[in-house]
Amino acid sequence: MVQAYILVTAAIGKVKQVAKEIKKLPDVKNVHVVTGPYDIIVHVDTSSMDTLSRAVVEGIHKIKGVVDTNTAIVIDV
């Protein structure tokens, strides 16, 4: 299993809609709208690095209103 936190920057006025769409994606465990340099933090739990890559590139990046992402892969629990 590969766990990661995906830090998302959304377009102004699109944060809630982007968070709602991200919640619909497979492997997404939690979605939080936050303050700070990012707008949304997404926790995913995937079966492999390939699945994680698809979740970001084919999932989150294709949502209208997503400006940027930064992925932090969990290396220790």
The beta-strand count equals 4
Main sheet: which strands, in order across?
A: 2-3-1-4
How many domain regions? 1
Overall shape: globular
Annotated CATH topology: Alpha-Beta Plaits
Q: In sequence order, what are the helices and strands, one letter per element?
A: EHEEHE
In percent terms, what proportion of residues is strand? 35-45%
User: Into which percent range does the helicity of residues fall?
Assistant: 25-40%
Brief summary of the model shown:
Helix content is 26%, strand content 39%.
What's the layout of helices and strands?
Blueprint: E1 2-10, H1 15-23, E2 28-33, E3 40-46, H2 49-59, E4 66-73
Antiparallel strand pairs: 1-3, 1-4, 2-3
Explain this structure.
The chain is α+β, with helices and mostly antiparallel strands and 77 residues long. The protein has a single domain (2-73), classed as 2-Layer Sandwich (Alpha-Beta Plaits), CATH 3.30.70.920. It is 26% helix and 39% strand. The chain has helices spanning 15-23, 49-59; strands spanning 2-10, 28-33, 40-46, 66-73. The protein has a 4-stranded antiparallel β-sheet. A hairpin with a 6-residue loop joins β2 (28-33) and β3 (40-46). The radius of gyration is 11 Å and the shape is globular. The two termini are 12 Å apart. The model has no long low-confidence stretch (mean pLDDT 97).
What attributes characterize this protein structure?
39% strand, 77 residues, globular, alpha+beta, Alpha-Beta Plaits
